[in-house]
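Input (structure):
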C-alpha cells in the first residue's frame, strides 16, 4: 500500500502543476487541513533537487498566507468556523487557560508550533481568537515555517540520492513511524493543552 502511495506521490511531485499543488496544500494545512506539506515537499525535492530552494520558498509563503487566513478565522469567524476546528482537535475546554499563556508567550507558541509536528492550524486560529499582535504572529510564522521547510529542503538537496535510496529501502518502516508520530502529535495536543 505504501509503495503505490509513494510511487503516486513521486509522480505527482514531477507533475507540471506540482508547485501549485504544494502551495494549495501548504495554504490549507495552516488553517484547516490535517496533513502537513512535508508529504509533498520531500518527494518534490527528491524528484527535482535543483528546485529545492524554490520548493521551500513556495511552501513557506503559502503556509504563512494560510496561517494568516487561519488567524482571520480565529479573529473574525471563530464561532462559525474556528470553534468547530478547535473542537475537532478536542481543545475547546482549554481556551481560557490558554489565553493567559498567549499573553506572555504568543510569539514562541507560534514559532514552536510552526517548526514542530504540532497542528499549526490550531495555533493560527487561536492567535486570531486571542488577538495576538498580527505583526508578531506574522514574523513568528515566517521564521518558523521558513526554518522548517528550508531545513527539510536543504537536507534533501545535500543528501538527496542517499536519502531517496534509504526511503525506498525502508518505506514501510518509515511510513509506520510517520503515522505513529502523526497520531502522537494529536494525542500530545489533546493532553498538553
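Output (sequence):
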Amino acid at each position: 500500500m505504501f509503495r503505490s502511495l509513494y510511487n503516486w506521490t513521486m509522480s505527482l511531485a514531477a507533475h507540471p502543476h506540482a508547485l501549485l499543488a504544494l502551495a494549495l496544500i501548504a495554504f490549507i494545512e495552516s488553517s484547516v487541513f490535517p496533513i502537513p506539506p512535508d508529504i509533498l515537499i520531500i518527494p518534490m525535492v527528491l524528484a527535482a533537487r535543483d528546485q529545492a530552494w524554490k520548493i521551500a520558498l513556495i511552501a513557506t509563503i503559502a503556509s504563512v498566507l494560510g496561517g494568516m487566513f487561519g488567524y482571520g478565522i480565529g479573529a473574525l469567524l471563530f464561532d462559525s468556523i474556528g470553534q468547530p476546528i478547535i473542537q475537532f482537535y478536542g481543545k475547546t475546554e482549554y481556551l481560557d487557560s490558554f489565553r493567559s499563556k498567549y499573553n506572555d508567550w504568543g510569539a514562541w507558541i507560534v514559532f514552536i508550533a510552526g517548526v514542530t509536528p504540532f497542528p499549526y492550524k490550531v495555533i493560527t486560529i487561536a492567535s486570531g481568537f486571542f488577538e495576538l499582535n498580527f505583526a508578531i504572529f506574522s514574523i513568528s510564522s515566517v521564521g518558523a515555517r521558513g526554518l522548517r521547510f528550508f531545513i527539510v529542503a536543504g537536507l534533501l538537496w545535500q543528501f538527496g540520492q542517499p536519502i531517496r535510496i534509504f526511503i525506498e529501502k525502508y518505506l514501510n518502516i518509515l511510513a509506520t513511524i510517520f503515522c505513529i508520530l502523526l497520531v502522537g502529535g494529536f494525542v500530545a495536543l489533546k493532553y498538553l493543552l
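Notes: The mean pLDDT is 81. The first helix runs from residue 2 to 13.
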